[in-house]
Structure formats: structure tokens, C-alpha cells
Write a structure and sequence with these properties.
Elements: E1 4-7, E2 10-13, E3 18-24, E4 33-39, E5 46-52, E6 58-60, E7 68-72, E8 78-83, E9 92-99, E10 113-114, E11 118-123
Parallel strand pairs: 2-11
Antiparallel strand pairs: 1-3, 3-8, 4-5, 4-9, 5-6, 7-8, 9-10, 9-11
């Protein structure tokens, strides 16, 4: 059973930056797709970005495009989410997720493995 552990969350002011880290217990290429999701209080979980672990191609939700960058390290065991120009609406619990097959969008139902989450709070 793959284990995903997120870290790097915290509290920042508007315009600040954070880098989230997702450490996996297996090589990321075992899972064709790694993604980041977030959930604000009272709202549904939404997809932020994904990376195809083999080809390295990426996809971003419109709300974060140009501000967030998803990447993986050379050891293929860690995935990052670099977040810049943060806004209060970026506040929420951020989750790392893994899917066994090819990336097929940011549907939560497609990702079978999830971490416990790391909190991001952006204040004005």
C-alpha cells in the first residue's frame, strides 16, 4: 500500500509563497499520475494540478495557472507544489494523491491513494 505524506503547509500573507512536498513510499512512476488537490472549509475537494510521472507533462486548474508549479524530483519519490502569488482563496487543506493509470484530469474519484493533507492559510 503506497503511503503519501505531505508537508510544507503554513500561514502566509497575500502574495507570499509556499512549497508543498509529497513524499511517497514507492517510486512515483509506479503510479502514472500524481496530483495535488485542495479543500476549503464547507467546499468540495478540487483538483489543483497533476503530473504524469513518466512523461513529466503537467496540467493546472485555471485558478492556479501561472502561479503554481508541480514537479517531481530525480529520485522519483517526491512530488512538489510550488505556490507563488498566493491569494486568500487559495486557503485550504492540500492533499497529495496518486493514481495507478495515466493522467485523466483532476477527478478525485480517479485517484486511489491519498495523503493526510497539509494546511495552507493565506491572510490579507
Amino acid at each position: 500500500q503506497v503511503k503519501l505524506v505531505e508537508s510544507g503547509g503554513g500561514s502566509v500573507q497575500t502574495g507570499g509563497s509556499l512549497r508543498l512536498t509529497c513524499a511517497t513510499s514507492e517510486y512515483t512512476y509506479i503510479h502514472g499520475c500524481m496530483g495535488w488537490f485542495r479543500q476549503a472549509p464547507g467546499k468540495e475537494r478540487e483538483g489543483v494540478a497533476y503530473i504524469a510521472t513518466g512523461a513529466g507533462s503537467t496540467y493546472y486548474a485555471d485558478s492556479v495557472k501561472g502561479r503554481f508549479t508541480i514537479s517531481q524530483d530525480n529520485t522519483k519519490t517526491t512530488v512538489y507544489l510550488q505556490m507563488s502569488s498566493l491569494k486568500p482563496e487559495d486557503t485550504g487543506m492540500y492533499y497529495c494523491a496518486a493514481a495507478a493509470g495515466r493522467c485523466r484530469g483532476l477527478l478525485t474519484s480517479y485517484f486511489g491513494y491519498w495523503g493526510q493533507g497539509t494546511q495552507v492559510t493565506v491572510s490579507t
